Amino acid sequence: MAESTRTPQTAAPPSVAIVLLNWNRWAYTLTCLESLFRLDYPSYSVIVCDNASSDDSVSRLRAWAGGRQSAPPPSAAELHPLVDPPVTKPVELCEAQRDETPSRTRPPAPLILIQTGANLGFAGGCNVGIRHALAQGADYVWILNNDTVVAADSLRQLVAVQQSDPDIGIVGSTLLSIHRPTKVLALGGGRLRRATGATRHIGAGRDWPLQPPDPRPEPMDYVIGASMLVSRHVLETVGLMDEGYFLYYEELDWAFRLPPETRLGYAPASVIYHHEGGTTGGIVRRHYYRSLIRFTWRHNRRWLPLVLARMALRVPEALLARNWSEFDALLSLLRPAQITRR
């Protein structure tokens, strides 16, 4: 069994709460947890919010913490040392209620499980964990996708960038493919094309490590939601994620709500391995387009007619391609009654 790499320090470092959202993907979550409990940062806790999974995610998580359930390793052999051998069990697990106020008289448990009671979407589910993190006194909240594996120094690198400049409010990581660990998925954040609402992940497709290294990272419009270290100041002044975005565009909305003096940061040495792609289908596509309309209305309203026109042009394309999930999603959202529901 691998021992946790947490080591005491003389100066109290900022406390970090790591928020993972789980929905029917317990195997991903357990693998992520194995890597998280190898972090070399000395002051953190992990909050897993389960969005009313219909599988046995909760019992699997309890079993993992108790040493009765193993976590599957990543497919890439070079990533196995990030999760194997397993960390020492049991891992102290505390189960909290959704609206419970944690005690500040004692340190938070290393692992906290909150059952949200419903599928609240990405923003809603993460917000449950963020509220708990703020109540327990966290200085920073690290929102991390559960389908990731993290390098041991990834959190330390994020905190270092946050503390290097008081104007930085949200920091992103280097995201690499978990299946092809030398392939970049994103360098911290992305760019938005306002006229269309289309997004582009900075550095996607490049080889890692970068040769030569970028002397000056490309400016970003938002931090990729798979890994965002957010300061307590931002959470208390700007607010939590907008739960009107069930899926997609939450991180863009957050970035566009920041005051002008608050900047986005990127920690190149914070390396996260992420499953690219994801679920597709009619329901997911509807969430995507609904969030696109909502975001454009709120932040780029003058471009909304063009965004809607481009969506309308995709209807015959989807029909000719027999892409029925795309076709149904577009038709369901291009009705006037749906467009006005923002």
Brief synopsis:
With 342 residues, the chain is an alpha/beta fold. It is built from ten helices and 13 strands.
Question: Could you please describe the fold and organization of this structure?
Answer:
GO terms for molecular function: glycosyltransferase activity. InterPro entries: Glyco_trans_2-like, Nucleotide-diphossugar_trans. The protein folds into two domains: 259 residues, Spore Coat Polysaccharide Biosynthesis Protein SpsA, Chain A, CATH 3.90.550.60; 58 residues. Helix content is 32%, strand content 21%. It contains ten helices and 13 strands. Strands 1, 2, 3, 4, 5, 6, 7, 8, 12 and 13 form a ten-stranded mixed β-sheet that branches. The longest helix is centred in the last third of the chain and has 18 residues. It is globular, with a radius of gyration of 20 Å.
Describe the protein's topology.
Blueprint: E1 16-22, H1 26-36, E2 44-50, H2 57-65, E3 93-96, E4 111-115, H3 121-135, E5 140-144, E6 148-150, H4 154-164, E7 168-177, E8 184-187, E9 189-193, E10 198-201, E11 222-223, E12 227-231, H5 232-237, H6 250-257, E13 263-274, H7 282-299, H8 304-320, H9 324-333, H10 336-339
Parallel strand pairs: 1-2, 1-5, 2-4, 3-4, 7-13
Antiparallel strand pairs: 5-12, 6-13, 7-8, 7-12, 9-10, 9-11
Helix pairs in contact: 1-2, 7-8, 7-9, 8-9
Protein name: Rhamnosyl transferase related protein
Family: Belongs to the glycosyltransferase 2 family.
Region (Disordered): 65-84
